[in-house]
Amino acid sequence: MVQKNLIDGEWIAGSEAFRNINPSNTNDVVGEYARASAEDARAAIAAAKAAFPAWSRSGILERHAILRRTADEILARKDELGKLLSREEGKTLAEGIGETVRAGQIFDFFAGECLRLAGEVLPSARPNIGVEITREPVGVVGIITPWNFPIAIPAWKIAPALCYGNTVVFKPAELVPGSSWAIVDILNRAGLPKGVLNLVMGKGSVVGQAMLDSPDIHAITFTGSTGTGKRVALASVEHNRKYQLEMGGKNPFVVLDDADLNVAVEAAVNSAFFSTGQRCTASSRLIVTEGIHDRFVAAMGERMKGLVIDDALKAGTQIGPVVDESQLKQDTDYIAIGRQEGAKLAFGGELLKRDTPGFYLQPALFTEATNAMRISREEIFGPVASVIRVKDYDEALTVADDTPFGLSSGIATTSLKHATHFKRNAEAGMVMVNLPTAGVDFHVPFGGRKGSSHGSREQGRYAAEFYTTVKTAYTLA
């Protein structure tokens, strides 16, 4: 059975279908999904535009009820949906279920936000005049999501868009359509009026381009590569639309001499290698001061020897496969580049064979790396990390901030002085102290600086900045 696109409240077959393949077992076809055309995308945009006037003026209880029903169903089906996610993306079952729970929590949070919509009433500088400041929906929102968080990222974009009264045209990554299709199906059955949410699966060059070219999309929120993000920005400027970009990262994790070694190693392994390193918040630069460097490297090697890399659905698996063959090639190419640049491959980096054919890669740790190397400058998006030796805290901070990116930054230290200074001076949107650089809560803002992000923050109450526009109204008393 081919899963179809949702356009104007109807499930529409595409002109062709594509297969969703399990990276833990390439013989396993997760499902077949209809590929939308540019014409389908334009029909979805037209449907969203037509649905906007009524939905933007819908009651807060209606929106609350739909989002709450969605949250309840996602949480009730967390094991089933988590397994689907792990089959199609390759992260472990525990991570897949955890991400599904997070998606449910996000919908639950924004269900509550429907009931907390507020404005301001201020006195005018002129007598007998009142001033009201309110937020209104932006209009038709285009949503383009990546493959690495196939249920959480769609949730944290779709939920606020609907909460604040926008209509949506949603294009998920073609590599992992299953989780996104499931969310749209749940929302559709939860009672969304036709045209409010439209799903168009397919190629970015076709569906995504049709969205970028349309003057009837009033805002686009995108998570993905830096190169594509720039194209989204250029197209959005041409149409004078709002745009929000979450792109790459080359996140540092600093380990100081005074760090608790066990805490530092666990945080570094989690940051660099869990979720197969396929997180924009992953730390691939481990910046370590001289006094602890050798002990840290030795402890990392021992910890990495015990990591279980296998089928994502197997009990006990800690790291699943790389998402597909193309990403695996990119990872191994960068491992070769690191060697050519003069870094020492201290551990891992080998292709692995398991009971089923899949894209298995042993996490790789480089030492003797410098911050000028390509493996230290460019986002690899795989389980590959480099250790950079530095003299002291001051040099560590300088190296940590010496990057075109600025999403997440971490430090392992028992010094309150250094932790406090790092939190203030790390050039990143998020800072972690004695914690992995990856892993954020659902109700607080998410986003970065420099080349990692553009526009207002995602998640939590800060989401209102993107999904609404401010109106100021004056009334003569």
Written overview of the protein:
40% of the residues lie in helices and 24% in strands. The chain has 477 residues and is α/β, with parallel strands linked by helices. It folds into 2 domains: 271 residues, Aldehyde Dehydrogenase, Chain A, domain 1 (3-Layer(aba) Sandwich), CATH 3.40.605; 183 residues, Aldehyde Dehydrogenase, Chain A, domain 2 (3-Layer(aba) Sandwich). The strands form 6 sheets. A 7-stranded mixed beta sheet has the order 15-16-17-14-13-19-20, sandwiched between helices. A 6-stranded mixed beta sheet has the order 10-9-8-11-12-22, sandwiched between helices. Helix 4 packs parallel to helix 5 and helix 9 crosses helix 10. The longest helix has 22 residues. The chain is globular and about 70 Å long.
Question: What does the secondary structure layout of this molecule look like, with pairings?
Answer:
Blueprint: E1 2-3, E2 5-7, E3 10-12, E4 16-22, E5 25-35, H1 38-56, H2 60-76, H3 78-89, H4 93-114, E6 120-123, E7 129-137, E8 140-144, H5 152-163, E9 167-171, H6 177-189, E10 197-199, H7 204-213, E11 219-223, H8 226-238, E12 242-246, E13 251-255, H9 261-273, E14 283-289, H10 290-305, H11 325-341, E15 344-347, E16 364-369, H12 374-377, E17 384-390, H13 393-401, E18 405-406, E19 408-412, H14 416-425, E20 430-433, E21 449-450, E22 453-454, H15 464-467, E23 468-476
Parallel strand pairs: 1-5, 8-9, 8-11, 9-10, 11-12, 13-14, 13-19, 14-17, 16-17, 19-20
Antiparallel strand pairs: 2-3, 4-5, 6-7, 7-23, 12-22, 15-16, 18-21
